[in-house]
Design goal:
- By secondary structure, the protein is an alpha+beta fold.
- It folds into two domains: 97 residues, de novo design (two linked rop proteins) (Up-down Bundle), CATH 1.20.1440.60; 44 residues.
- Helices cover 49% and strands 13% of the residues.
- The protein contains four helices and five strands, in the order ααααβββββ.
- The strands form two sheets. It has a three-stranded antiparallel β-sheet with strand order 2-3-4, with no helix packed on it. A two-stranded parallel sheet has the order 1-5.
- A hairpin with a 3-residue loop joins β2 and β3.
- α1 packs antiparallel against α2 and α2 runs antiparallel to α3.
- The protein is elongated.
- The termini are far apart.
- 16% of the residues are buried.
């Protein structure tokens, strides 16, 4: 990778590398389609790179129209590649690969949501006191404040569907 390459050319190189890696592996892209659709994806990703490098070498001052036409050609190759990828997705050719990507994503520790509700305990004009139906913690707040949607003590979701 040359230091003076435009970012778009660097990205085109990465796209070509990824396209070859994806479509050359029978675990990711079925053999049945590798020499038809897979080859088209590979060749189109190379066309994007070569067309962009060609456009970059054209002198913008002396051949502005030629440079614009070449950039338009690169954009057409991008549209073609997008079609091939969408076709692969519609045929579920990349489905197993996507399942692997999703499977390997980090997960979160999920816990069951405990539901409760605020039960009124006291009200003296400017202050209101409610109690959590799950942990029985009392909450004091100004009368016009909205009650918490979750109990700050036990984390119960205060949506009125009571477990507590």
């Amino acid at each position: 990778m040359a230091d003076n390459d435009l970012k778009v050319i660097i990205k085109a190189k990465e796209l070509a590398r990824h396209s070859f890696k994806l479509t050359s592996n029978s675990n990711r892209f079925p053999k049945k389609y590798r020499h038809s659709l897979g080859d088209r994806i590979q060749l189109t990703s190379l066309d994007i790179y070569t067309t962009l490098t060609e456009a970059n070498r054209i002198n913008n001052k002396t051949a502005r129209n030629l440079r614009c036409d070449t950039i338009t050609k690169a954009i057409k190759h991008c549209d073609d590649l997008l079609f091939f990828i969408e076709l692969s997705m519609n045929l579920e050719l990349l489905f197993d690969y996507l399942k692997i990507i999703i499977r390997d994503q980090p997960t979160v520790d999920a816990v069951e949501v405990v539901h409760g509700r605020w039960r009124p305990v006291d009200h003296d004009g400017s202050w209101r006191v409610d109690m959590c139906s799950v942990c029985h913690r009392r909450m004091h707040y100004v009368d016009y404040d909205q009650p918490y949607q979750y109990c700050p003590n036990c984390g119960a979701k205060m949506d009125g569907d009571g477990n507590g």
